[in-house]
Amino acid sequence: MTTSELPRILRRRGEPEYPTFLELFFDLVYVFMLSRLSQGLAADPSLRNAAQMAVLLLAAWWVWVLTAWLTDLFNPRLPVIQALVLVVMFGTLVMAVTVPRAFGELGFVFVAAYFGIHLARGAVLIPGTRVHRAIQARSVRVFFWFVVTAGLWVGGVFAEGTARLVLWAAAVAVDLGSARFGWPTPRLGRTELASQIFTGNHLAERHREIFLIALGELILTAGTGLALPRTGEIRLAVCAVAFGNAVLLFLLYFHRIEQLLSPGNVSSVERVRPGTSTSYTHLVMVAGTVVVSAGTNLVLGSPLGPAPVAWIVTLLGGPALFLLGTCLFDYVVTGRIFRPRLVAILTLVAIGPAMPLLPPLGIMVVANLVLLVTLLAELTVLGHRLPGSPRPA
Fold this sequence. Notes:
The protein contains 13 helices and no strands. By secondary structure, it is mainly α. The protein has 2 domains: 3-180, no CATH class; 200-382, no CATH class.
């Protein structure tokens, strides 16, 4: 089938691959979403609440991923696609509002917003591609698996406590996991994992943008702490360390991404399997950044007091989770893991038992030092050039 015969709703090969302003506008709602999640984790850093926030993050991430794929596979300059993106944006805003009480009395509202997003998406894409059954089958497969998990989501609304957590965790695991296997669907089969359906440059840029949004939320947390009344020298130091943390995460991310996804290598994420894996690895990086932000909130409340075990896990676990995401991404693109970052993860784990000797602010500083040493080691091994520096001719 030629390009002229494709449904008008689809993005054509050769069209501009950079994200549109509407896509950047859509990402702004995730500043609020990630902020709500980090605040929710900081309010109660227990294992149970961390699991609850993780489930909500996974649901929010699935919405973002499907929207990124939407504007990658379909024409983002078409009014119906733009309207759909705005509908999804509003639904995400509603989901974010419910975060603190999603496992309480607002569970129904969270699921209703999540349902509404998927229903709107299917209502636009399935009829819009009816002239080409093979392309329409992709949207039908995604919608089919949404129907499969609908019972778990709705069942969780009528359950409480651990039962809701288990049902929703199973639902979101199936939502994300079904993509990894190409959404196998009765009579329609599955999307071939080796097929080339993504636009590498566009998808890579979208992932860069959502990570910047996560860093923006971390800077927002630091700035909000600095703007509190009666900010003393200690709180100023916490904000400075948090800002330094954001800078280090930025440099570590873009230093490696710039090398892995150079113009000649970006086609490596255009197929179904590596494309979905790229989204999952960025989920781990963003989750790590959210945990770092939650740790900053904790330290702002008590920078020099005792550090409970949950605080230590949060302060060291955030950077470790981010580094794990970068290692997994490295493996997706190159088939191997970058050793300096693996060493940094093991270091963060190894120093954990000694951290009760330090106050929370001291633990933040130690975590930053591990990230700094890792960055300097990489610059030494791979060349003394920071992200954004001109490439040699």
